Structures are given as C-alpha cells and as structure tokens.
Amino acid sequence: MRPYVLAAVALFATVVATGLAAQSAAAPDLSGSWAPYRGGRGADPKFAAPPATEILLKGEYKKSWDARRAAEAEANKKGEPLATPAVECVPYGFPRMMSVALYPIEILPSAKQVTIITEAFSEVRRVYMGEKQQPIDEVPPGYYGHSVGRWEGDTLVIDTVGIKESIVAYQNLPHSSQMRITERIRLVAPDYLHDQITIEDPVALEKPVTYTLAYRRLPNYKMVEFVCENNREYTDANGAVKLRLGK
Amino acid sequence: MRRLLALWGVVGLLALCGGAARLHAHHSFAMFDTQNRVTLTGTVSKFQWTNPHAYIEIDVPDGNNPPKHWTVELGSPSILMQGGWKFSDVKPNQTITVVLNPLRNGDPAGLLVRITLADGRVLANGPGPTGGN
After folding, report:
1. Which residues pair with A36 in a beta bridge?
2. Among the four residues A24, A187, A245, B107, which has the most C-beta atoms within 10 Å?
3. pTM for the full model?
4. ipTM > 0.95 (yes/no)
C-alpha cells in the first residue's frame, strides 16, 4: 500500500477514534431503566443521595406550607389523611414525578432530545438539547414546563421553567410562576445515577433548595404500563382519602 | 419449616426496605391502622389487577352467620411484580389467607401485609411493607 494511502487511513482512523472518544467522554450512556436508590440488595451505600439543603420559604408561601403540613399531621393522627391530586389519578408533574415510591424511570437519550418516561402514571418529559430556553412568561404553565438540556463534560444539565403553580414540587413545596429548576444528571458509577435538582424561586424561596435523587440501573428491565383506572380511593367532602369497598 | 423460612425472609425484607418505601409514598397510609394486624382466611370473589392499586375481595366464614365480606388493598401491579407477584396468582373461588392492617374507621377492609396463596406461597405487598405506594 502506498504511503499516502496509509497516511490517509491512519488519519481517518484517528479522526474516528477521537470522535468516538469525545462523544463517549461528553455523553455517558444514560439510556435504560433506573430504579430509585434504596439500601440493601447489594446497593453500595456510598452512592446514596447526599442530604438536601434547608427549605426557607418566604411570607405567604411559608404560611401556606406550614398550614398544609400541620393539617396533614392532624388528619393523619385522626386516620383521615388529606387527599392529594394523585389520589384522583392526576399525575404528579415535574419535579415530583422523578421520585415516586419504588417506580423506575426510563431515559431515552438522543442528540436532539432526551426523553424521560416514568413508570408511575406514565409521565413523559422531553428535554430539547442545545436549544435556548424561552423566557418564563412565554411558556404556557403546565405539568412538565419547557426543558432544555446541554452537556457539561459528563453531566447532563437541564433547565426547566413553566411549571404550573398548582403542581407542588419537592416536599410539596409551593412555588410561584417564576420557579426555575436546574438538574445536573450524571453517572456517579457505571450503574448509579444522581439527579441533583436545584429549585430557584425568587418570589417564594429565601434561597435555592438543592436535593439529589439517586437511582440504580435496572439492566434489561421492561417498563410496566400504568394507566390509572378504576380508582377505588376518592376524596370526600372534607378533603380526606376514603376507600370504596367492594362487594 | 419452609413456610416459616419464607415468612422470615419476608419479615427481613420488610425490615430492610421499610423506610424508603414510605418516604415518597403515593399517599398517606394513615387511614390504615399500621399498628394492628388482622388475619383472615376466606374465599376470593374477585381479584382486581389495576392501577393505582390492585384489590382482592374475599368472603370470610363467620360462624353461623353469612360470610363477612372484606376488601383488601394492595400495591400497584408494578410494585407487586417487584415483589414476585403475577397477575394470575389469585383467582376467584380460591382459598387464601391474608394479613392486613385494617381500616381505622372499622369498615371491613385493610391494606395487605402478606398473603398465603392457594398454592402455599407467601408474598408480601410488593418489595416493601406498604407496596411502596
């Protein structure tokens, strides 16, 4: 083989190898199903989520949050827990959907869009990669808002705005229309994923709240369908959860 | 003996996973009396494999009175499958034994703690004590 052909082949191989290395370094493979981390079953405790920061709400937001928590505690004591929208089969919305009991999530990454599907309530988020975020006041308020993403090294950074004010966030936090949520998602080990979530809300929060959700890879898991149907639990006139008995 | 071992396995699992399952629960379980348990053996009239919860309806013999009907709330199909369940594990007319946390208001219903199926297998309400819901 002639030297220039060899050189061309070598150059091509180098370009391909460099490209692949760059791609794998920049975008670790987050694809597949992930279960919320819990101890036991061989889980490595060093990949459990670190503690969350303190929640400091402002004025009216603090009052309503404190009142709701006190009412919940009182209702639970009486054995008549207060209903949440989920009791009526209404999905959680973002960010609460990212951690529901033991239900897995599924991540479908692609160059233009990262799609996250939750098993509980089959909720779907679409993260538009490389796009510019819209001004908050131009996003129609919804359950999932508008999310844009980018890679910062090995970390997928997602910016979300436009969450409806009726959708409570982490720890049932109330929020204003100005809430912005930043996620930093990365593999902390080949089979452990952390989603560090920071909630900023200059209207409702004295300072941002950061908490982390930890997940463990579920190899070969097939997501189970979840259609909320024929619900036997309901909200009574006092806002408490009740159960319809069968015959 | 084998059943006893299976039972201890379940107890161990419950001890291991208890806290995490309730941490992000679908709703509060305060309508159930989790401090008390009722054990019932009866005949299945219906098994409802649905979201957000599955249900078993059973008729429990009550001496010379007509059988008493009970409603048993379970986790969701996904959570039950994580605990080793199949949609076909319970069928009408089978005799089963259930351990429940009864409703606090006294109605004949409760949250499943564990079940002994017609074939003798013992299953919990998913991988955690409440089915993780």
Report:
1. A215
2. A187
3. 0.83
4. no
